[in-house]
Design brief:
The complex is a heterodimer.
Chain A: H1 2-32, E1 39-46, E2 57-60, E3 63-74, E4 78-86, E5 98-103, E6 110-115, E7 129-132, H2 138-168, H3 170-176, H4 180-213, H5 217-224, H6 226-265, H7 270-276, H8 278-306, H9 309-324
Parallel strand pairs in A: 1-7, 2-6, 5-7
Antiparallel strand pairs in A: 1-4, 2-3, 3-4, 5-6
Chain B: H1 2-28, H2 35-45, H3 50-74, H4 81-119, H5 122-129, H6 133-171, H7 176-185, H8 189-215, H9 220-252
Helix pairs in contact in B: 1-6, 2-6, 3-4, 3-6, 4-6, 4-7, 4-8, 4-9, 6-8, 8-9
Classes of the chains: A alpha/beta, B mainly alpha.
């Protein structure tokens, strides 16, 4: 009988242990789904439930505080969700808290996020409807990202072209040239030297201007002497009249030149004949030859005359006159 | 036509089994109740099976976790191992492995026990002495098997999950609290309740098939061995068929 009793104790322990595990399992699951313990209801309205289902978690600033109890469609446009929230959160969640539907991780379950806004608003009561916010939609985000990346591609292409242009440009070569700084330095040095010289020159110019004002030197004389000025005017007048005379002279000269020209151009004229007629030129040559010959003969005749006794006396007298002179 | 004969045999066997189950239900709710024998059978069937069930489910949880780990790591979701192992154990592995072990141990022992009693004509002697042998032998055993298997399944689940916890910690480091909160976060009533309810059917099937095979054994000691053997085989097959039906029913009810 004692064995029977101990067997029964063991059996009882075994059965209780099994039931305990079952109860524990159900309780843990129930606790996660907020089936036990005091809760209160809050509502929120959305235009899009985005796949939220009954039993999804509700989080307040990321802490698990409840579950979605009911999802109903209101007036064909809005979705009303009823959340059962841990009663302890009554002291925390305020009327102006913002409700949004989010995602647990990137591709996880949907969750309802309640975000606190202020500390001054009144606490949310049983059955209150909270403000909602359309949360960032992954699809919209991807759309925007796609648009942005396309824009960036265009900008990048243009930047590339610009950069290539800059690379090829003279300015870039100038900037890239390592000797430029040296040159610029040298140039600046020269400019500085030149400017110091210029300042010296300016001082001298100043002196000269002073001298001129005082009537010293040639320029001063020109500028200050009134007699000289009248002389200059007189000279100017004379130059003027001389130039007028020269004018008429030029006219006369032109006439002469015209006449000469006409003479040359006119075929029957003597000048033209002299200049352009070859037969006349030959004839002239021959004539000149003959004259040469005639002159030679005349010279011989004259020489002969000198030595002629009749005329020898005259020539001797002539020579004596020459010597006495 | 051996096929026709075997089909005929199968159908008549199924009919007999159904009749046997109907007989159990008729006798079950009618006094006098054999309470003391029922409790003794619970002890034998339930408590005595705990060691075997604990060992197998522990190993199952540990091995499942370690087998899952490489592919989970390859997909980059090593942190989800507790969730997946928890769901697998509670929904399927725990009930089915426990029921199969239970069928192997209890189904065969019931079949052998009742079969030997049958062939040694103890059952007939009982009937003569005024005790209802069906009520004393069969009803107590089927009831005990039906009620004890769910308890074993629950304890087996817990032990398998503990094995899984150890399995997770062989390669990685997961705190005890994190492991359990991950397991429970991913479980829901629709995971636990169908599994729990189907384990009653598993227990009932093991008890009924074992008792039927033992009660209807004949041809001497040779028949005892055969009835013990076929009790295990048939109850294992029935367990899988029930599993198949449960998953369909749970799916149809929206509990999946």
């Amino acid at each position: 009988m004692a064995k029977r009793t101990s067997d029964n104790i063991r059996l009882g322990t075994f059965v209780l242990a099994g039931l305990l595990v079952l109860v524990l399992l159900l309780y843990m699951i129930g606790k996660n789904e907020h089936l036990f313990g005091a809760t209160y209801m809050l509502k929120a309205r959305f235009f899009n439930a985005r796949g939220l289902v009954k039993g999804n978690n509700v989080r307040f600033s990321g802490i698990q505080v409840g579950t979605v109890r009911k999802i109903t469609i209101e007036e064909n446009t809005q979705i009303e969700i009823v959340m059962s929230i841990d009663r302890k959160m009554r002291q925390v969640i305020r009327k102006d808290a913002v409700v949004a539907i989010g995602t647990d991780g990137l591709v996880g379950d949907k969750v309802v996020d309640i975000t606190p806004v202020s500390l001054t608003s009144r606490l949310a009561q049983e059955g209150d409807t909270l403000i909602t916010r359309a949360s960032a939609n992954l699809t919209n985000m991807l759309d925007t990202l796609d648009q942005s990346s396309r824009d960036i591609a265009v900008v990048a292409a243009e930047l590339k072209i610009t950069a290539q242009r800059i690379n090829r440009s003279a300015i870039w070569r100038l900037l890239d040239d390592s000797t430029v700084p040296e040159d610029v330095k040298a140039t600046l040095f020269n400019i500085r030297k030149a400017s110091s010289r210029v300042s010296g020159i300016a001082g001298k110019l100043d002196e000269m201007v002073n001298d001129v004002q005082n009537g010293q030197g040639a320029a001063g004389t020109i500028l200050k002497d009134s007699l000289f000025a009248s002389n200059i005017r007189l000279a100017g007048d004379k130059i003027y009249s001389a130039s007028e005379t020269a004018d008429s002279l030029v006219v006369l000269l032109k006439n002469v030149a015209d006449n000469v020209h006409n003479g040359v151009v006119e075929k029957n004229g003597p000048v033209h004949a002299l200049l352009y007629d070859t037969t006349i030129a030959q004839k002239l040559n021959i004539s000149l030859d003959n004259i040469q010959k005639g002159t030679d003969g005349f010279n011989q005749s004259m020489e002969a005359l000198k030595h002629n006794f009749l005329l020898r006396g005259y020539f001797r007298k002539q020579e004596k006159k020459k010597i006495s002179k | 036509m051996p096929q026709a004969i075997s089909i005929k045999l199968f159908l008549s066997e199924a009919g007999d089994l159904a009749q046997f189950a109907g007989r159990f239900f008729r006798q079950c709710f009618r006094p006098p109740y054999e309470v003391a024998e029922f409790i003794r059978q619970c002890f034998v069937i339930g408590y005595r099976s705990l060691g075997l069930v604990s060992l197998t489910t522990f190993i199952m949880g540990l091995v499942l976790t370690m087998q899952l780990r490489p592919s989970m790591v390859a997909y980059g979701v090593a942190s989800q191992i507790p969730a997946i192992v928890g769901i697998a154990i509670v929904r399927e592995i725990g009930p089915v492995i426990t029921a199969l072990i239970f069928a192997g141990k209890i189904g065969s022992s019931i079949g052998a026990e009742l079969g030997s009693m049958k062939v040694t004509e103890q059952i007939d002697a009982m009937e003569v002495s005024g005790t209802n042998p069906f009520r004393y032998l069969v009803v107590t055993r089927i009831l005990a098997a039906t009620l004890m298997l769910p308890v074993l399944v629950m304890l087996g689940d817990a032990i398998a999950l503990y094995g899984a916890y150890l399995g997770v910690n062989i390669r990685g480091i997961t705190s005890f609290n994190l492991f359990w909160s991950q397991v429970f976060d991913n479980l829901s009533f629709s995971d636990v309740l169908p599994a729990f309810i189907k384990s009653y059917f598993f227990g009932f099937a093991v008890g009924t098939v074992g008792c039927y095979k033992g009660y209807s054994s004949r041809k001497g000691t040779e028949g005892v061995g055969r009835s013990a053997n076929s009790a295990v085989v048939v109850s294992s097959v029935v367990i899988f068929i029930i599993d198949l039906l449960t998953v369909q029913i749970a799916d149809a009810m929206g509990l999946n």
